[in-house]
From TrEMBL:
Domain UmuC span(s) in chain numbering: 10-190
GO molecular function: damaged DNA binding; DNA-directed DNA polymerase activity; magnesium ion binding
Catalytic activity: DNA(n) + a 2'-deoxyribonucleoside 5'-triphosphate = DNA(n+1) + diphosphate
Site entry: Substrate discrimination: 19
Compartments where located: Cytoplasm
Record GO cellular component, one term: cytosol
Chief place of localization: cytoplasm
Functional summary from the UniProt entry: Poorly processive, error-prone DNA polymerase involved in untargeted mutagenesis. Copies undamaged DNA at stalled replication forks, which arise in vivo from mismatched or misaligned primer ends. These misaligned primers can be extended by PolIV. Exhibits no 3'-5' exonuclease (proofreading) activity. May be involved in translesional synthesis, in conjunction with the beta clamp from PolIII.
Protein name: DNA polymerase IV
Protein species of origin: Flavobacterium hiemivividum
Amino acid sequence: MLELIPNRKIIHIDMDAFYASVEQLDNPELRGKPIAVGGSENRGVVAAASYEARKFGVRSALSGVMAKKNCPGLIFVPPRFERYKEISNQIHTIFKEYTDLVEPLSLDEAYLDVTQNKKGNPSASQLAEEIRLRIFTEVGLTASAGISINKFVAKIASDYNKPNGQKTVNPEEVIGFLEELPIRKFYGVGKVTTEKMYQLGIFTGVELKSKSLEFLEKHFGKSGGFYYNVVRGIHNSEVKSNRITKSVAAEHTFDVNLSSEVFMMEKLEIIANILDKRLKKHNISGKTVTLKIKYSDFTQQTRSKTLPYFISDKGLILETVKELLYQERMKDSVRLLGISLNNLNTEIKKVVIVQLKFDF
């Protein structure tokens, strides 16, 4: 059944090249220069790149070797996640002065529901401008924003006028905006799905909208219903100030590739210690243990096992990880290992959405 769209006032704030911008903020010598956070010219992957580096095609997840090849003058900087978290907390303190309905997606982006806000300002666009100005004057960084009636459209809009800009998609503009939107820019449509849609003759929102629910479910399964709704401006997901944790993980990229399972188990014990602290901090347990393996050729593999009961004990997690590690022989040396716990004991509560009408 087609649900009615709830007209909320949602702002999506996305910091501009956050990790790299923090490094340039703290070290004036790096300002205006192409920098990459994480990786090196010999190994590793880029975690973030400054806009000066992006002009040369340097992006996150790109290997350090390729990044240096694309940009010979690239400066590699080691990540400082505690510092990024500190800056993120400062930014979120600003958010909370406007609304308690703040849903962080990561350290550098968040949704804000300002339908009812602490400033009593009916204009979400004005609030976004004010928040961005405060981040710049009080923290020293720039942010971009998308403003619309739901999280889906706001997320897409925040990418339109980057860096240091914003875009508002008013209620009456949503359908036209989505119809003209290239399918590759739909949030949640990845490269593989984009190619599949191209093969089906779907290149923009208007072509996606022309397909029936049955057609989309036939070709995309459960995701078909999502695509059917969002292209019609229907996305009822609320901004949740306390997001449900779906997975807890820890991983590490090694300076020297590992070729022995014995050495891998030593590293996995260290990773399990980190995971253990995170589980205890949030009082979380889960049933599914996943071992993540990235080989020296950058191919990735995951091995999982679901237990009949919830666990959080480090010993039990390691026991399962060891079983997964020796499940089959390694096809190559290993550059990254990770452990995650899924199928958690967190409860998702369903709420009834009521349609609201007001001036945007």
